[in-house]
């Protein structure tokens, strides 16, 4: 962003005033990195020579990225099982569909499990995607047991020798412990048939600092292995994902950038970090 | 809600209260603490700056008088309270009904903000007030949004105008327009138009929303926003304000641990009030937004007003009157009365939510208790009482061993559960008697005149004396 390049230019010229620092700090906060992280960055930047400040800041941000594996796991001898979890309205079902399209492009066979039996018409929403992408969807009764839908799907995926099983779950606020237990149960029940390889937490790029607690609690309940950061085509910078990576070590694996099935990108650090300041 | 912000505010004031006199340095200190708390709670940077500037200005203006008062910290507290109320929009704003029906309400917002769920909640809320709302399915974008609205409509008994299947098929503007004509024809006095979610940067879709708006000329355009949103809240709200325009804001997902950023920023930046807040997954988890009550909650004062209103709504007049006269005439409080209370309490909604409205609910010990609260315990207690005969309910003294065994079997509980319920109940009866004779005992919170004895709502967080994992029972201990 102009603000940043302007500030960096000022900093490089060696004339950094305290209001410039405040401005940088606020820009970092505005990207949802969190007040504490922003203050830390400023501390780091203040310690180096003025012509090294931008490199120091970007190195610090780089450093916060997780060194976890960012590739989608694939298992060769059995269906790879991916569970999609998250709070309400982050875009789980849409991300599920995008992931299917992504895997289909790599000639993988996919089976979907519609384990969101709670939200009205969520099953139909996934079914519509399944039809569009030509992928079978295992469904159960509305308000039925999501674990049993997931179990049936896992059994079918195994029997049919499918490459990937993707389980879409109902959105739940991490503060509802009953619903979090339900999610743990879905995972436990599926694991009777197939090990779960990936649990992807879908995080809305507009999420504020509350995202960290979300990630931590989902981590405790279902041991998330990666993040899908959605709605990155809006005006939000998605800095919360970096804050989550730093806090939990869980890597961002994909970025959602639109409403079409192909609007899913494999995470790349550089454009993401640059984007925080644009 | 807003626990983390609330905890920080309370911490800041605790340290201020420990000081006798307040110097201007103390004000700077608390201002810095509040600033950090607000920034950490996703409140927009510009809003935080205004807040702090006003706080410092107002406090410094009265600093001399402050120190003459007996409790200077409380005076600062009052200033913060009034600032919070202002920032949240001042007073509650109700829906403006059109002079000539139908009143048209248009919902807009980002994807995933919760528009469709909100449409259902709003329709239910308006229907319960005697209106005849019609839902119009103009979200033809998201796969099966139309079906979702139909399912929601059916569950609350509100008709849905959905001529187009959606999933990208159909013209949302035409649907909205025809829906309005349909409503006029069928004499619905309110229509609620659900539209597709769109990003603030997507000018094309914003234009489409504007077209719908121009076509139906809504009396109220509501901007629906997820309470958990971060610093982007302001940018997106402004984009919607400029691109589509709206009259008021609806906050959703307030039942999570949102930090309050959107709530505290949007009104200030857009000048539009927050009208409603949705606080749960049930269609009834929805109410008017009261800035003063929210400020109370943030400052740890609880929300007794809402609690009292819900209590009033849940206890029908008869039950309350009966209990009151019983209490006054000196009759014994029986298990039958207790059961009536349990049922009324269940009608009031989730216990955790109710208890969260009590002062101090966000403080450490109480918060922990709330988190561990098992809603199921209420049902279990209820089942034990329901397994008793009327004689047993009215005179628990007759409960001998064989009766207790039967009750345990009937309710699927252990005899020990029955025993402890009866024991606590007997104790509670004693306390009631003491209260009647004015010897003290548990006091009702202020502002709840018509609220009969509802021990579970008042006492379960009393940690010192709790012996049971069952809050309803624990409440009866004294």
Question: How would you describe the overall organization of this protein?
Answer:
The complex is a heterodimer of chains A (278) and B (478). Chain A has 278 residues and is α/β, with parallel strands linked by helices. Chain A folds into 2 domains: 2-64, no CATH class; 80-275, Rossmann fold (3-Layer(aba) Sandwich), CATH 3.40.50. Chain A has 11 helices and 8 strands. In chain A, strands 3-2-4-1-5-6-7-8 form an 8-stranded mixed sheet, sandwiched between helices. In chain A, strand 6 (226-230), helix 10 and strand 7 form a beta-alpha-beta unit. The radius of gyration of chain A is 20 Å and the shape is elongated. In chain B, strand 7 (274-278) and strand 8 form a beta hairpin. In chain B, helix 3 runs antiparallel to helix 5, helix 10 packs parallel to helix 11 (261-270) and helix 20 (401-411) crosses helix 21 (415-436). Chain B is flat and about 75 Å long. Chain B starts with a helix and ends with a helix. Mean pLDDT of chain B is 81; it is low at 439-466. At the A-B interface, helix 2, helix 6 and helix 9 of A face helix 2, helix 7 and helix 10 of B. Chain A: One of its GO terms (cellular component) is cytoplasm. Chain A: Keywords: Cell membrane, Cytoplasm, GTP-binding, Hydrolase, Membrane, Nucleotide-binding, Receptor. Chain A: Residues 251-264 form the SRP54-type proteins GTP-binding domain. Chain A: One of its GO terms (molecular function) is GTPase activity.
Give a quick rundown of the structure.
The complex is a heterodimer of chains A (278) and B (478). Helices cover 48% and strands 15% of the residues of chain A. The mean pLDDT of chain A is 89.
